[in-house]
Amino acid sequence: MTSSVHTQTVFTPQTTLHLCPQPRLLHPLQEQPCPVPQSHSHTSAPYPPRICVIMTSPSAASSTHAVEIVHSPATSTLPREPQQQLVTEFASLSRTLRAGYAAPRGHNGVLQTVASSLRHKHRAFLAQPNNTFFLEFADGGNTQIQVSVGDDAPADVPTYIGVHGMAGNLNAPYLHETLSPLIKENRGRAVVFNLRGCGDSAATSPAFHHGGSTSDLGAVVTWATTKWPNSKIYVIGTSLGGVITAKTLGQWGDECPIAAAALVSPVYGFRASSQAMETNLVSRTVFNPAVGAFYAKLVKKNKDAFDIDHWIHTRPDPFPSATVSPSFPLSSPPSIDPEAPKESRPLAQDSRSKSFATSSTSSASVFSTLPSPSTPGTSVPPTPLPRSSFDLSSPQPAPPLFTEHTPKIKEALSKSLKEVTSRILPQPLTKFCKSFVASTAHYLSGDDFMAETSAVNDLPNIRVPCLAVNCADDPLMPGKDLPRSQARQSPFVIMAVLKQGGHLGTFTTKKWKKLHGKKRYHTAVVEEWFKANEALPQIRPRPQIVNAHQGFVYPQGRPEMAFREVSQMYLKLKFTRPTYPKFKTT
User: Which pTM was predicted?
Assistant: First the structure.
């Protein structure tokens, strides 16, 4: 008999409720087996998880608030996957969640949000030129990647990919603060990258980063899986990066190569967030115009990239064919059309061969041996296959890698771009997203854009362990609007809701720091979460790589994630030049 059980557990300093799954999975969180009555022996047929109540001593800190845990464990009579068992046990046995959270006196949600956005220096690692990489996407966009350790690190060291939030970049202090304890003493490898147009990654295509831009994260994850095939891939998404991470997990589903993920202050629903920013006094007068002004400055700096006519002359050539055989050397330079007029080419086109060749060594080493996808549900790590095993008799037609702009979309983008760049006072963030960002994502309606790029409907499709940490007093995503019902639809998702903490805040008291170190509360929870996931030995199935035109590669079945590794000089020569002469029709 199968029943549906939804749990919403609230941990207090006095009482701890947790589930005892059958069979139990031993991991670092469980030091002693949970007491089970003799009448419920594990020798009988499996039953739905039981509720056990364990009394603990009252906490000395009376100001500690309970943590609301939203989780729905699988109740099937069949043996559950180890990932599901780990998620269920973490929801009940996590020391950090059971301890509760106490905010410093006078630190409400707004103050903690402001404090988290201050420019304080905190880096998990120092950037090194040898550990900096550049990817170019199929539509001409690019990103910069920084890695904490070099190739001399052990091959099986876990890899943590960090995704920053709005108005951030790969140097975001809140992201590095979360990564720092995970990679201490080279126990892990940190990988951070810029979303489109952020940091030193100039916008080079009409695409702007938003919650639905999952292809860039998918490309970085694919790049990491092929560069370190024996390493577990973990992802940490903060704020907007949490939305992108959740949507990526949901879209990939059972085929997701990510071992586990953590979301910190994700803004699940953009409609609810937009309403909160327009109604809350502080959000309406501080956050909304401040972030809007940042993005307006960013667009003005890269306005040529959003000119469709200019983009057509600088983007890579459309893919004529694709094949899973490495027919095209991964280090081959892009072709130059000899029939094109000299003045109509991008000025850096003649220098492509030399500049692209500078990254040939690193590109070839990344994809020299392509890992094979292991069978889902098995614990056997993937083994490298010889390149000849991917040979096909004939190339297959390549699917479209990006959506062409329709006349209506082109007109809407041109209109919104002119409005953003010509205004003296910048637009607030909510209006900027509904008009400009929506048009870059091929939406004519701002409401449709916010509905379809939100991560609310992707939570039930997540099939890998995923922890989300939110605060009820978050001015950008209030607690009443959190998608609790959607989170309960996936047994792989845990949503921890703190009563206080703001957006990316969760600053702790002096007493907490003495007991747990100088960490924010969500940093301690995330660290404990990934340590628990290290108990799972298997590596997720790796995507099969398809080699396409001009050195681009992408996971099979997902051409929108196509990328190629290039050099920084290549990007400078191609895009940091005066614009091409515009021809007027007579």
Answer: 0.77
Strand 50-55 and strand 15-20: the pairing is: antiparallel
- What percentage of residues in the chain have a pLDDT greater than 90? 42
Closest by CA to 61, choosing from 474, 516, 503, is 516
Do residues 21 and 62 touch, judged by C-beta distance below 8 A? no
Residue in the block written with tokens 């960002």: 437
Q: At what angle do helices 240-252 and 214-227 cross, to 10 degrees?
A: 70
In 44-158, beta strands by DSSP E: 50-55, 67-71, 132-137, 142-147
Res. 531: pLDDT tops 80: yes
* CB atoms inside a 10 Å sphere around CB 109: 25
- With 0-12 CB in 10 A as exposed, 13-18 as middle and 19+ as buried, what is 342? exposed
C-alpha–C-alpha distance, residues 248 and 241, integer Å: 10
CB half-sphere exposure, 412, CA atoms < 13 A:
19
Nearest-CA neighbor of 359 among 200, 570, 201, 151?
570
Phi-psi domain of 202 (left: phi exceeds 0; alpha: psi -120 through 50; beta: other) = beta
- Using CA atoms, how far residue 289 sits from 41, 196, 211, 283, in Å, is 60, 21, 20, 9
Residue 482, token pair as written in the block: 């959190």
The single-letter code of the amino acid at 522 is H
pLDDT higher than 70, residue 330 = no
Round to whole Å and give the CA distance between 502 and 476. 9
- What is the arithmetic mean of pLDDT over 104-129? 76
- The pLDDT, as a whole number, for residue 265 is 95
Q: Which of 173, 49, 95 is nearest to 527 (CA)?
A: 95
Cβ contacts of residue 504 below 8 Å, gap of 6+?
113, 116, 117, 165, 174, 238, 239, 264, 265, 522
b vs e for 241-259, b when ≥16 Cβ sit within 10 Å of the residue's Cβ? bbbbbbbbbbbbeebbbbb
**Contact (Cβ atoms closer than 8 angstroms) between residue 263 and residue 245:** yes
- Report helix angle 521-533 to 82-93, nearest 10: 150
Residues 266, 237: contact at Cβ < 8 Å?
yes
* CA pair distance 175, 238, nearest whole angstrom: 7
Query: What digits encode the pLDDT tens for the residues 371-429?
Result: 333 334 443 343 333 333 333 233 444 555 667 788 899 999 999 999 999 888 889 99
SS (H, E, C) 220-270: HHHHHHHHCCCCCEEEEEECHHHHHHHHHHHHHHHHCCCCEEEEECCCCCH
